[in-house]
Amino acid sequence: MDKTVEELFSFIEKSPSAFHAVETMRQELENAGYHQLLESESWVLHRGGKYYVIRNGSSIIAFRIPAKGFAGYQIVASHSDSPSFKIKENPEMEAEGHYVKLNVEKYGGMLMAPWFDRPLSVAGRVIVREDNHLAVKLVNVDRDLVMIPNLAIHMNRDANEGMKYNAQKDMLPLYGSETAKGTFMETIAKAAGVKAGNIVGHDLFLYNRTKGCVWGAKQEFLSVGRLDDLQCAFASLKGFLKAEEGDSLPVHCVFDNEEVGSSTKQGAASTFLYDTLTRINEALGRTKSQYQQALASSFMLSADNAHGVHPNYSEKACPTNRPYLNGGVVMKFSANQKYTTDGVAAALFREICKRADVPVQVYLNRSDVPGGSTLGNISGTQVALNTVDIGLAQLAMHSPYETAGVKDTEYLIRVMRQFYGMTVREIGYGCYTI
Ligand code: ZN
Predict the structure, then answer these.
(1) Ligand 1 centroid vs 254 CA: distance in angstroms?
(2) Which residues surround ligand 1, an ion (CB under 5 A)?
(3) Amino acid 425: pLDDT
(4) Can you give 212-274 as a three-state secondary structure string?
(5) What is the pTM of this model?
(6) Gyration radius of the chain's alpha carbons
């Protein structure tokens, strides 16, 4: 298997929840010599220093300060969360006196059908009482634990005529037989290495256990869960760590809660990025005006996966802009600015890709469908700067098992590496250099 694909699969396997995705990145940053900053403490920063800061355990911003100072910020934003089912409080439900199932609710807008009939497990975090404080512990019940079985065709002859799924009835995972009653939190506690009685809070989600695979006549495709958006988060981190030092301050930024609108304290609509950039500015003794000048010479890649043209539904794609798997990085446009890309940002991004020797494709929605939204336009309300929305072409977005091209991750890493090492500067009215 291609080394990059192998690394991507390993990154995703270690990241069954947004909390784990941030922990996976935290470990890679620690291994690369980055120092953790806490929002609750004052920051002492040095030129040449390498740092990261985490909010809520599920969003992370890493940056390094060029030794010779910097003109602006080169920022990549992606997201750590994926659609799933969240375990509710008091989750156990008895059925028929013979089964124990779990009460769950939807997190984000997923395709529900592919959650049936495949081994699932539970991951997230628990909050435990320890002596005189509360401590957050990550938990992953790392075995096949629950399943959402379909109703047999014999009991629903219309099953292939189009199904409606009710999240409160159809999607409740089976956890055990009647003997499993009262054991769910014990199972979680055991996996977390804590006592069930000490758990006083939790954020737990279902995840798909099916491992990543490479397939196709020439092994041109790959499938795995949470490609949206861990493929971009992975590429951003790799590019960030590999980039050479330029005249800009590189910022690797991964937000939680994109799938539910980003309006949380750690989402793209929050002050997390603004707070971090202004605190860097302040710690380096720079004025507010210097911060604003730096923003004018900054650029952001809002990196979130894109829809490739589907072989069975080619009519669903825009007639003239048709991205394909393995065709390179996708730039996304929308006249109503659901995607932030405009003519200037597109021109700058095309130049970056040219220098990285990576092909660029374009995605637009059909003019008669509303399409989705992403990070860039939301983050822009807190930190306003030239932004381009990009991603990699994939199929089955928001299924628990998504499909992409084997070449594209490497393309994106190359673009990110190029981007982080360069400077986009506004040198006059309507005039830019890179
Ligand atoms: Zn996404």
Answers:
(1) 11
(2) 228-229, 304
(3) 86
(4) CEEECCCCCEEEECCHHHHHHHHHHHHHHHHCCCCCEEEEEEEECCHHHCCCCCCCCCCCHHH
(5) 0.97
(6) 22
